[in-house]
Amino acid sequence: MGHWLERNIVEPGKLPLLLALAAFVLTFVITRVITRLIRAGKGPFGNVKAGGLHIHHVVPGVVLVVIGGFGAVAGGRQGFGAALAAVVFGVGAGLVLDEFALILHLDDVYWTEQGRQSVEVVVITAAMVGLLLAGFSPFGVNDISADELQDRGAVIANVVANFFFSLVALSKGKARLAIFGAVVPFVGLVGAVRLARPGSPWARRFYPGRPRARARAELRAYHHDRRWARLSRTLQDWIGGKPDRPEPARLPGRR
Fold this sequence. Notes:
Elements: H1 2-10, H2 15-40, E1 49-50, E2 53-54, H3 58-75, H4 79-98, H5 100-105, H6 116-134, H7 146-171, H8 175-181, H9 187-193, H10 201-206, H11 211-240
Antiparallel strand pairs: 1-2
């Protein structure tokens, strides 16, 4: 394990990326735990306020991202400074993306249905950074044999092909298949060859003159959502907490 870590993480200069990813995921988990305790009225935590203004944690997150980003640029890729900058950046990114939905909607939608977008963005970001971290690099590692270089080249060619199929799957509105397809072979290919979801860029471009394909796509999307929507919502609730239920509409003249 130590030899693999040295050759594939430390020697290619990926240690700051590993530290940033670990800090990012840990910050998100801790932040969600704290916010759920605040929501439930448990523990010693509470909302941060200054002069009656609620300070969202995206604010210190932005500050930490700026500090960590400029620190990484100034400190290079090696040494304690690079490691510290990576941790600071990861913590800041975790705080910012935990409130991504708030930034997107310019409203406090943290515990609403729109707030689920923050969880989705965090999961996607962690998956993509993990892909960068786990990817093999044929350059930047010393003493590579010809066979090992060939193997690494084959791996990179496979990754490039998977990435291409994942882009096609993404254009067809299959975000999850696109994400996993960038990591798992043939998953992106499955998403690339299947029918596009209604409303996706691919469907808007290629399905207007094909009513049969459009109808098949709508029917498949309906059955897919009916089969997997509940599981997806359960997983999101487990990670980020259940959103608030909207207030029931009241008839005029009734209280």
